[in-house]
Amino acid sequence: MPLTPDQQADIDTLRSTPAQTLRAVSPGMEAHLYTAHPVLDHGFVRVIDYMGDDAAICQAARVSYGKGTKSVSNDEGLIRYLMRHWHSTPFEMCEIKLHVKLPVFVARQWIRHRTANVNEYSARYSILDREFYIPAPDALAAQSTTNNQGRGEALSGDEAERVLRILRDDAMRCYDHYEAMISDEGQQGLARELARMNLPANIYTQWYWKVDLHNLLHFLRLRADAHAQYEIRVYAEAICAIVADWVPAAYSAFEDYRMGGATLSSTALECVRRMLKGEEVTQENSGMSKGEWREFQGVIG
Ligand SMILES: Cc1cc2nc3c(=O)[nH]c(=O)nc-3n(C[C@H](O)[C@H](O)[C@H](O)COP(=O)(O)OP(=O)(O)OC[C@H]3O[C@@H](n4cnc5c(N)ncnc54)[C@H](O)[C@@H]3O)c2cc1C
Which of this chain's residues are annotated to bind dUMP (predicted)? Predict the structure, then answer.
């Protein structure tokens, strides 16, 4: 369980004291507010605050005084148009603030997305919890033989046992040493900011992460994708489910044009045109490299 009873009580209190507001409210998002959605073995994602809804995107696009909404279908059409034509600034009018608990090695990938505001738990000031990510059996995968940046089948039997034992033993030993180094027992003990350097990258950290919808969708496009590492992908998928409830029309357009869509080079587009005319196009006469051709085939099925 990623939350202590005290933390859960704080969340329950927040959820039981609704406040009135004149601001735009997304009913789908209200259902998520403050609740922790578990991810991996000790992690979670929870919404702390948000601004805007589907209508806010349209209001900004129309620079209107009031709601500016002609009808829901009108708004959906406008949102799809904006998404299709990369008219991105109206999506920046919506914001979300998340509290995320995640392993440090996932945080290293996540922090590469520079267009967010972040405040992380201080391991200089506070003592980190004894919480380490240990993969579930089906996520304990072997190195891929075809993709240097990927994984293959799950390990099994003795090999899985051996790897899990190493992961658990190393994590516990490092944490024991961390505690031993910072413990004062009559002396000062090592500074927390130094003792933490001996901890493995699967220890959990936490942060508040605030980002606008445009940049969030960019993050999700990259990190909910099959090419992203599983451990960050599951966080992105949890956020996708939240965004789908928050701004259903924008999320639906995003799924259609970004997640489900594809970009074709002019060479690839020319191949599609030749194929439609009935010409037999092969890698050799396509003008594409073997890698490009393979990806092109993946796109057109
Ligand atoms: C599958 C995968 C594998 C990866 N592998 C590696 C790897 O091996 N090594 C590695 O180092 N990284 C790797 N990355 C990270 C990747 O290179 C990007 O750093 C990361 O995805 C963030 O993307 P971004 O810069 O578009 O996002 P953001 O930082 O959120 O930026 C969003 C957009 O804002 C603009 N922007 C933001 N800051 C600047 C700036 N300073 N200058 C100009 N434009 C800016 C750009 O248009 C950018 O696309 C990988 C990412 C993925 C998804």
Answer: 109-112, 120-124, 196, 223
The domain spans of the chain are: 5-133+202-259, 136-200, 266-300
212 is an annotated ligand-binding site residue: yes
Tell me which architecture the domain covering 5-133+202-259 has in CATH: 2-Layer Sandwich (3.30)
The 8-class DSSP code of residue 213 comes to H
Question: Closest Cα to atom 15, ligand 1: which residue?
Answer: 112
Q: Which pTM was predicted?
A: 0.93
Q: Is 192 a catalytic residue?
A: no
CB-based burial label for 287 (10 Å; 0-12, 13-18, 19+): middle
Q: Is 229 helix (H, G, I), strand (E, B) or coil?
A: coil
Q: Which residue has the tokens 């620079």?
A: 63
φ and ψ at residue 211, rounded to 5 degrees: -155, 155
The pLDDT, as a whole number, for residue 289 is 96
Question: Measured in angstroms, how far is the CA atom of residue 115 from the centroid of ligand 1?
Answer: 10
Which residue's CA lies nearest to atom 41 of ligand 1?
A: 114
Supply φ then ψ for residue 43, to 5 degrees.
Answer: -90, 170
For ligand 1, mutation pick of 112, 222, 229, 233 (most atoms within 8 Å of CB):
112
Query: For residue range 224-269, what is the model confidence (pLDDT) as tens digits?
Result: 999 999 999 999 999 999 999 999 999 999 999 999 999 999 999 9
